[in-house]
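Hi L.,

You mentioned the student needs an example of a multi-chain input paired with its predicted structure. This one should do, with 455 residues in total across all chains.
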Amino acid sequence: MNFVYWFIRLFTAAKGVASLLICLLFCAVLLSMQPTEKRIFHEVVITTFLWPVQAILSRVNRTVLVSRENEMLKRQNMTLRVENDFLRQSISLQPRSQELNAFQESIGFSLKLGQISGQDPGRYGTAWVIDLGEKDSVFVNMPVLTPKGVVGKISKGFHSHSLVQLITDPNFKLSIMCQSSRFKGILESWKVGELAAQFPVEAQVVVGDTLVTSGMGGVFPKGLLVGVVTEGGLGTADMADIVQTVRVKPFQNPHLVEEVFVLKRQPSWIVGKMEADMQTSVPDSSRLNADPLGGVR
Amino acid sequence: MNFVKSLSFLIIALILQQTVVKLISIGNIRPDLVLVVLVAISLRYGTVVGLFSGLFIGIIQDVYAIETLGANALAKCLVGYFTGLFDEKVLKIMPATKIFFLGIAFFLHDLVYGFAVNLSWPVLAEALLRYSIPSAIYTLLLGALVFYFLIAPARTEP
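Structure written out for the whole complex:
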């Protein structure tokens, strides 16, 4: 008992100077060890009384590492997924691209290929935004088409993008012609997303006839494919002795279009004159609706 | 009993130093949480507890850096001992003074460590300027929080 008391006294007396000396001696021994001895000391300490601490640290570190690795894998996965989607998109674009190139070669006009980058968010979806603008020499009233047929025209041009007014827009009217009988008429929106064409009552237009642009109106050149007549005898009874109305199915379904061509063709001088007249004169709804040339609004 | 309690605090601080403190480090600059706890323990329990606590935790740190085995133990036991001379049971120390002691302890630790691992004067001076001073500032900020929330309330106890 006395021995323990004196032992504690030795370590704590005079503010523990003896303890300090012992500790300094111990540290000096540690510092003067040879590398092999240091390694042995390390092994002994690690595998004996430091084992619990080591286990806790390892577990915590492993958890942190797994968490970081998980984050990294998530990012990698997302990157690969985006890359995969991009590649799939490129593969799916290839047949369309070949078709578009063939069309461009066959049509003979100067065409500019554009991507649809936005759509009118309204219910009718009557306008698109394409990635061609004035920097690509794309201007207002240039026809917009696909290899299957006409889809609309440029209604507003900006520096690097343009608005396309679709033929399904209720404000859009297009001068057309029956390819077989050569009778001319006006194509316009019938109901939401549907098209109808009005012909003179004596016109010989039957179901299955192909309709093309007539070239009148100054915007669309003659002969571009528009649609096919699917039903006749539409329209109101009071107009039945003047015009006949037929339902038209466009060759190009607007919902399936991803790329379009802009026909780089300046509209006829008459279009510019009409627009200037419309801007200077007092707006008159009946006159606007009459639209003798069609296709210009 | 005080020694066991001190060791528990130091081991917790060491675990936090190896895990949480890594996350709040700014480049190579990180606070030395172990040193903060060691200084706090020494001021609270005196020289002997500070000395042995410093030796013990220093050896644990050294075990993971075999080349410098003994350097951390030497630096920390000296810091523990000399900080323990200003035992709170004997002297009443203001919190700001404790922060000052922590700063001194930090430099004493790095100096002793530098000498123990045989760093040349230019290298030691550069290490003190580029690493020790920013780390000391960071450690002092952390120490201020520890002293304010852990030590100051204890001082107001009856």
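You could point out the following to them. Confidence is low (pLDDT under 50) at residues 284-297 of chain A. The interface with chain B takes residues 11-12, 15-16, 19-20, 23-24, 26-33, 35, 38-39, 41-42, 45-46, 50, 53, 56-57, 60-61, 64 of chain A (CB under 8 Å).

Best wishes,
N.
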